[in-house]
Specification:
Layout lengths: L1 E3 L8 E3 L3 E5 L5 H8 L2 H6 L7 H25 L8 E7 L5 E9 L8 E7 L8 H16 L4 E7 L3 H9 L3 E8 L2 E9 L3 H4 L1
Antiparallel strand pairs: 1-2, 2-3, 3-4, 4-5, 5-6, 7-9, 8-9
Length: 197
């Protein structure tokens, strides 16, 4: 697994086995919008399925600019504060946009509460891509930012998502209720190599 991000106008990419994570690009907008309206996606990732106008506004005025601020913080000192990073999941085979993977602050729980989140297109489920994406992002965060602990939540009935979280090494904490939905809540601590020796 490798990641590359040079200074200037280069694009952050994180190469995994079958997919590449890269920061949102303008050409991802239509595919992202379509993804958020797939039934399995908006059933579990709430508040993502908005009108095309709203998505375009968010994408251009909030999401892409915040990604840039996140990457500036990484290149400066790694202190990302409460900034979010949203990445596209791209198929290495076809080059198409097939999902999203990102990190932000989960304000429904007490700190430390930096989460990872993800979603993948219906045609590409159950192929291990989401686990690759989540692992790629986790490694990137632990190696390049001041993050020492990550959290993840998944609705209890969302079996595939719970499996992804468990495969990435997260430890189950307890079940929590957010807005009348039951979630499994997990944590993952950054283990430094010096702690292993």
């Amino acid at each position: 697994m490798s990641h590359s991000q040079n200074t200037g106008n280069s694009i952050l990419t994180i190469a995994c086995k079958d997919i590449i994570l890269r920061e949102y690009q303008v050409e991802d907008l239509d595919a992202l919008h379509n993804l958020t309206w797939q039934p399995h996606f908006h059933e579990f990732l709430l508040d993502w399925n908005v009108s095309k106008e709203q998505r375009t506004d968010w994408f251009n005025h909030y999401e892409i600019p915040e990604n840039l601020r996140f990457l500036e913080a990484v290149s400066k000192d790694g202190d990302i504060g409460e900034l979010r990073l949203r990445l596209s999941i791209i198929s290495r085979d076809t080059g198409e946009f097939i999902g999203i993977c990102g990190t932000g602050i989960l304000d429904k729980i007490s700190p430390p509460n930096r989460e990872i989140f993800y979603g993948i297109s219906n045609d590409h489920r159950n192929k291990g891509y989401t686990t690759q994406a989540a692992n790629g992002l986790i490694q990137y965060l632990f190696e390049n930012t001041n993050v020492e602990e990550l959290v993840a939540i998944a609705q209890i009935r969302n079996v595939p998502s719970n499996k992804v979280i468990q495969k990435c090494g997260f430890e189950f904490q307890n079940n929590i209720v957010i807005e009348n939905r039951e979630y499994s809540y997990y944590k993952l601590k950054h283990i430094h190599h010096s702690q292993i020796l």
